[in-house]
Amino acid sequence: MNKNSPCRAAKKGKITYWDRLNGWKSRSSVFLFAILGTVLAACSGSAPTYPGGLQLDVYPLAAAPEPVPLTFQPQNATQEEVLAKHAGERAKVLLNPVQTVQGQPVMQALGDGEELTAVVRSSSEDPLRQIVDVIKGNEVLFTTDAGLPSPVMPLQALWAYDDHWVLEILFSEEEIWKGEIFRDGELLNDLKGYDESFGFQLLASEPFYFYQRGDTVGFSYAGEEKDLPYNRIPHYYCCGESTLNPIHSENMVAFFAQQDEEWFYLELGAFED
Asked: What is the 3-state secondary structure (H, E, C) of the chain?
């Protein structure tokens, strides 16, 4: 093997958790890590495989992306060339908007299942705490604590499909800022051992979400997990930086990822090409 081969090179750092309310704050300690999946594939002679036959396009960036206006520089292409490849699929954006009804944030369920509503209200015991109810008609199916108010709305996603329903919230407190996904009332973080889970959607009619478990990020699709060679996927950013959040479309998700100081733009989906 050539001594200059990327299969011989490795540099990574362990990143500590950040305070998302006050900006990312991290420190790194250098240690060896697994090389990017695409490099491993080149070394082994086989392409990486992903759950459900999904395809992943990875574009290393020359620098961190600029959020306003969203600008990024792939190392071996232009932003326009990269975005043109799956422009048609990316345009089929999934929206789970939050409305205000009688002063309360409300979200209607997406999907072809039961007609459900998620409502944010103040706790009767502590008015500063946020409570989320999942409601079917006049019946409260589920209630959970969403923590304290933050710049980002706790309601992130609500889906009803087949015989299941899924609620995603942002749970925030002074030292905590994490995604929580509940499936039929069960918290996936506890069930699967995640530090957080986020970005739920039906992708090509199958359940999809991201997770963080220790220093590893990955995704679950159609019930199968796949770790990715990154240690952070930006999400739940607000205001101008919200352009760095994942973009969810009917058959794909576009997102940024970091491995220490290295940035990547990725498109993961059920592509026909």
From this structure: CCCCCHHHCCCEEEECCCCHHHCCCCCEEEECCCCCHHHHHHHHCCCCCCHHHCEEEEEEECCCCECCCCECCECCCCHHHHHHHCHHHHCCECCCCEEEECCEEEEECECCCCCCEEEEEECCCCCCCEEEEEEECCEEEEEEEEECCCCCCCEEEEEEECCEEEEEEEEEECCEEEEEEEECCEEHHHHHCCCEEEEEEEECCEEEEEEEECCEEEEEECCEEEEECCCECCCCCCHHHHHHCCEEECCEEEEEEEECCEEEEEEEECCCC
